[in-house]
Amino acid sequence: MTDRASFLFLPRAGRCGVLLLACALCGLLGACAKDMGYGVGAQAERAAMAQQANRDPAPDTPGMYLGLIDQMQSQGLYFASLAHIDAFEKQYGATPDTHLLRADALRMTGQPAAAADAYGLLLKTPLAARGYRGLGLVAGAAGDFARAAQQLEQAAQLAPTDAVTLSDLGYARLRNGDVNGARVPLMKAAELDRRNPKIVSNVVLYLLASGDQAQALAVMNEQKFAPDVRIAIRGDAAKVAVAERARSRGTAPVAGGEQVTTGGAQAVSGAGAGTVASVQGIEPAPRVLQRFAQ
After folding, report:
1. N or C, which terminus of the chain has less Cβ within 10 Å?
2. What are the boundaries of each domain within the chain?
3. What residues have CB less than 8 Å from 149, skipping those under 6 apart?
4. Of 112, 195, 98, 111, whose CA–CA distance to 148 is shortest?
5. H helix intervals, the chain
């Protein structure tokens, strides 16, 4: 008699016992699976991935290895990524992609001169737009917003639909005292990427700098900007006003040392970084910005 037939001819109580035992085993297996990785917290998972990346041998293909390095950078592991970029170039040779990854890592680890050199290697490659943008960010971090605006304008010309570059350009022009020149790139950025909190914060900064206090307040309220974010944006607005007065007098604005991309703050909405919250019953911010741009 087969095992299946034997099971069928067991007394009812016996069959129920077998089924209960099978269910219990499944539960134990599920618990083991959870312990092996399911439900791990984001912080623990990131640490485990970092350890795995440092312990495991390099992936079999250059594309997979570059993907690993890019993932490490997206998790903020810039120093570790530099080590892996060295290993990649030793095995496969340098490419524009590795130059970009290295340049970003150098910039994010406080090595601006080396980062500028690495970005410069991209200017005659298909990644030239990224090179000019990186040079603009390095200049902006040093407080040279005039140079930052020049480099970011070059980047925007090469990548005219890149919303982040357009937002960076608008912010650099604001900090250089060119409030009117900031309007078009910021409005383009807002309509290209309607849910980017940094872009919205830079638009709010422009509204304050151009004297539209009511509209700026409406957007900040609608997006539920935190108090510290509002304070930072208003602080930048004061710096823009100083730069604008210096520009009108024909003198150079004083270097401030802030990064170009932030608009003076990591503008985070009530929903968290990466999204912009909308208050129920109130017109979404993108429409407010579209009306303003007309």
Report:
1. C
2. 156-294
3. 136, 169, 172, 173, 176, 178, 181
4. 112
5. 3-8, 12-35, 42-55, 62-74, 78-92, 96-108, 112-120, 128-141, 145-158, 163-175, 179-192, 197-209, 213-222, 227-249, 285-293
CB-count burial class (<10 Å; 0-12, 13-18, 19+) for 1: exposed
Q: What is the pLDDT of residues 121-161, one digit of tens each?
A: 999 999 999 999 999 999 999 999 999 999 999 999 999 99
> Cα(96)–Cα(131) distance, rounded to whole angstroms?
10
- Do residues 261 and 167 lie in contact, with contact meaning Cβ atoms separated by under 8 Å? yes
CB atoms within 10 A of CB 257: 10
Whole-model pTM: value is 0.69
What's the pLDDT tens digit per position in 24-49?
Answer: 434 444 444 333 333 444 455 555 55
Q: Which amino acid is at 4?
A: R
Q: Is 91 buried (19+), middle (13-18) or exposed (0-12) by CB count in 10 A?
A: exposed
